[in-house]
Amino acid sequence: MSPPRRPEPVQAVKQRRDAVLAALVAGVPYIQYLGITFDRRGDELTAVMPFDEKLVGNPFLPAIHGGVTAAFLEVAAIIELSWSLLWDEMESGRLDPAGLTPETLPRLPKTIDITVDYLRSGLPRDAYARARVTRSGRRYSSVQVEAWQDNRARPFAQAIGHFLMPERETAAR
Amino acid sequence: MVVEGTPGPELAQAFLQRIPHARALGIRLDAIGPGFAELSMPYDRRFVGDPRTGVIHGGAVSALMDTCGGTAVLSLPEALGTATIDLRIDYMRPATPGQRIAARAECYHVTRSVVFVRATATDEDGTRPVATATGAFTIERGAATDADRMPR
């Protein structure tokens, strides 16, 4: 009889999760261009977009460009969705973060449509966003996403998006 | 044609130049008239969303559409300022890598305080849209200041 499996060291688990997340984000030039990074607590992701002059849409207020806000919400939604897709594979150890490059990463979901609700003007401050996958289907998924700045209870934008899921090589799901 | 009171192409182009993110994306004004605007942006590797195919990220297309919608509202003779209330974007197909993306936005209904806008984006194949958008924008009709006049 084999002894019960020891739980994996916490550092190994964290390193693997962070490496997968980093590979996912680093592969997309536009995410780098906007300066968006992701904070991770367990499986919970928060997208962070530090304020930068090039993100401004109205230099007199000044306010973040509405298109930047839309892009930020869309990026947060797609990464959350991809992350939730990769989670099982990653936790089981089937996904090797060392071998992850933009070419070997599973393909990202494609946006079918996104509806952005502008609640307040985006201030010249860092912005944060969290997304929730409300439906994860084999072909289509729905994601809700909300962005805020100084005050979590006062979001400055929210969006709902529909996404076409990438084709899986195997019937793993 | 430009009607009196409508920001002319030079003024509209000057406005775009003063929007840092429009400048960052290389957005150019191609045409403007009362109630419509045409803007385009060049292909740029920094704005790629899928490195395997080189296709531009949907977010960059959203930024172009939002800017185009706001510019169309400002093209109305009575408009002094605008902000986006909401914007829905439908992505029809990936834009062909290497090609410019052009957007045309039209104000199809104007009320006292809200303008309803439709927009279409195409690459060099103008017959098949890359994306379409519908949005509601605020319209300010008060004393004009530069700050009021800028799209958000």
How does this structure look, described?
The complex is a heterodimer of chains A (173) and B (152). By secondary structure, chain A is an alpha+beta fold. Chain A has a single domain, classed as Thiol Ester Dehydrase, Chain A. Chain A has three helices and eight strands; from the N terminus they run ααββββαββββ. Chain A has a six-stranded antiparallel beta sheet. A two-stranded antiparallel sheet of chain A has the order 3-4. The two termini of chain A are 31 Å apart. Chain B is of the alpha+beta class and 152 residues long. Chain B is built from four helices and eight strands; from the N terminus they run ααββββαββββα. Chain B has helices at 9-17, 20-24, 58-74, 146-149; strands spanning 28-33, 36-41, 48-50, 55-56, 84-91, 101-110, 114-122, 131-138. Chain B has a six-stranded antiparallel beta sheet. Chain B starts with 8 loop residues before the first helix and ends with a helix. Chain A binds chain B through residues 27-34, 53-61, 63, 65-68, 70-72, 74-75, 102-103, 107-108, 110-118, 121-122, and chain B through 18-22, 24, 45-52, 56-60, 62-67, 70, 83-91, 94, 145-147, 150-152. Strand 5 of chain A pairs antiparallel with strand 5 (84-91) of chain B.
Topology, element by element:
The complex is a heterodimer of chains A (173) and B (152).
Chain A (H helix, E strand, L loop, with lengths): L9 H17 L2 H6 L2 E5 L2 E6 L6 E3 L4 E2 L1 H26 L18 E9 L8 E10 L3 E9 L8 E8 L9
Antiparallel strand pairs in A: 1-2, 2-6, 3-4, 5-8, 6-7, 7-8
Helix pairs in contact in A: 1-3
Chain B lengths: L8 H9 L2 H5 L3 E6 L2 E6 L6 E3 L4 E2 L1 H17 L9 E8 L9 E10 L3 E9 L8 E8 L7 H4 L3
Antiparallel strand pairs in B: 1-2, 2-6, 3-4, 5-8, 6-7, 7-8
What fold name stands as the CATH topology of chain A? Thiol Ester Dehydrase, Chain A
Q: What is the largest interface, and how many residues per chain?
A: A-B, 42 and 42 residues
The spatial strand order of the largest sheet of chain A comes to 1-2-6-7-8-5
Which regions of chain B have little confidence, pLDDT < 50, spanning 5+ residues? Answer: 1-5
Annotation field: number of helices of chain A: 3
Percent strand of chain B equals 25-35%
Task: Write the CATH homologous superfamily of chain A.
Answer: Hotdog Thioesterase
Order of helices and strands of chain B: HHEEEEHEEEEH
CATH superfamily grouping of chain B = Hotdog Thioesterase
Radius of gyration of chain A: 18 Å
Which class of chain A in CATH terms? Alpha Beta
Main β sheet profile of chain B: 6 strands, antiparallel
- Spatially, the strands of the biggest sheet of chain B line up as 1-2-6-7-8-5
